[in-house]
Amino acid sequence: MTVQIGFLVNPIAGMGGRVGLKGTDGVLKKAVMLGAKPVAPQKAEEMLREFYAISTNHRDLRWITCGGDMGNSELEAVDIKNKQVVYSPSGNTTSADDTKNACKKLLEHRIDLLVFCGGDGTTRDIFTIVDKKIPLLGIPAGVKMHSGVFGINTTAAAKMLHEFINERLTIGDAEIMDLDEELYRRGEWKVRLFGVAKGIVEPTYIQVGKACFESVSDDEVKDELAEHINDELEKHPEWLFLFCSGGTIDYIAKKLNIQHTLLGIDAVYQKQLVGKDVNEEQILTLLKKYPKVKILLSPIGAQGFILGRGNLQLSPAVINKIGVDNIIVVATPSKLMHTPILRVDTGDKKLDLLFATQGYLMVVIGYRLSRVVKLQTNSF
Predict the structure, then answer these.
(1) CA distance 76 to 82
(2) In this structure, are residues 199 and 135 in contact, taking their beta carbons and an 8 Å threshold?
(3) Which of 107, 140, 209, 252 could form a disulfide with 148 if both were Cys (CB 3.0 to 4.6 A apart)?
(4) Which residue, among 221, 311, 218, has the nearest Cα to 266 in the 3D structure?
């Protein structure tokens, strides 16, 4: 029996990440002006190559896809022949309407699974049309990926597709999350449950939806973390510190009288801001002036990502220049109870492998107190 896989790529997903726009919705022209490059087509091709590297029986597999970079180009790049194009975008630049119209066409062809490449915005557009008619599997390529249908990286998505085709995975409910990008760019985090889709149940490879509730205050522990980071700043006055996004980092910064960008990256030298809400290009420029740099990170609650979600400004080029050893991860013990694994998805296989060879990271959980936490990357 032939298995039909719907395949859809949002070519512009994630373009706003490295230029510091925290998404691409409504700001594509600005992202392009800032030098943003497409990332989704490459991610989609990467997943396809990994899938065909582990899957040998392709005779009963048929791809139902869209024209150009919305799917067909990526399938052609991997030399996949058994495919059918059922929708093509009208212009050179795709839109949310293209995603929705493509889904309508894909549904007409009785697909068994819709594999798509994008972020939460793409997921929302797909769910608007697909609802719970067919299961979804997301290849992560956006800036924001809080929904529960995404594989944690391309390798995981490839393995899940392989297992699904071989009928070794079950289908269950998956939360579709909706983040307000306009508020996000202004430093406010407002996420709501957009709906519940069908997804693949596989806790090892699927990221769980980000916790959307306020936990009991960890202020006492955060005070200790602030004291620890203050010591780091004073011990290394010649170093530049990149304060990344998140509530824990924001708390630490404010304790140190640093006006921090809650959902951005700020550059701090000798406890003074020298760069606010910086993008990839601005960070690389700062690295020319400040050769010694440390990155201050905190994991995304429940998901455990420290790189590859919400901080794409920290590109492989940036991380390679700074060095993996100069990353400081901080978290409260209560957060680590719900985040037993730290995840990294830099988009660069060699860099992910560098993290993978370490296996673990030391996480600061109090004043001069650390805990060893296991790492999971795109190189299992």
Answers:
(1) 10
(2) yes
(3) 209
(4) 311
Q: Are residues 186 and 260 in the same domain?
A: no
Q: Rounded to the nearest 10 degrees, what angle do helices 247-255 and 219-235 cross at?
A: 60
Question: Are 326 and 294 contacting, i.e. CB atoms less than 8 angstroms apart?
Answer: yes
* Least confident stretch, 58-72, 172-186, 283-297: 172-186
Residue 52 to residue 222: CA distance in whole angstroms: 46
pLDDT score recorded for residue 173: 83
249-271 residue pLDDT tens: 999 999 999 999 988 999 999 99
Indicate whether 143 and 262 sit together in one domain.
Answer: no
Could you tell me if residue 184 is inside a domain?
yes
Say what the pLDDT of residue 214 is: 37
Q: What is the pLDDT of residue 86?
A: 97
| DSSP letter, residue 308 | S
Determine what percent of the chain is predicted with pLDDT higher than 70.
Answer: 83
Verify that 156 and 258 share a domain, yes or no: no
In whole angstroms, give the CA distance from residue 107 to residue 189: 33
267-312 pLDDT per residue, tens: 999 999 999 999 999 999 999 999 999 999 998 766 788 998 878 8
Pairwise CA distance, residues 330 & 188, whole Å: 21
Mean pLDDT (the chain) is 84
Per-residue pLDDT, 221: 87
Indicate if the pLDDT at residue 17 is higher than 60: no
Does residue 148 share a domain with residue 246? no
Range of the domain at 141: 3-201
| Number of domains forming the structure of the chain | 2
Same domain for 131 and 9?
A: yes
Tokens of 302: 């429940």
Between residues 77 and 203, the one the model is more confident about: 77
**113-118 β-sheet, strand order:** 83-87, 61-66, 3-9, 113-118, 136-140, 191-201, 170-179
CATH code assigned at 158 = 3.40.50.10330
Q: Are 196 and 223 in a shared domain?
A: no
Q: Count Cα atoms within 13 angstroms, Cβ side, for 368.
A: 1
DSSP 219-277: HHHHHHHHHHHHHHHHH-TT-EEEE-SSHHHHHHHHHTT----TTS-EEEETTEEEESS
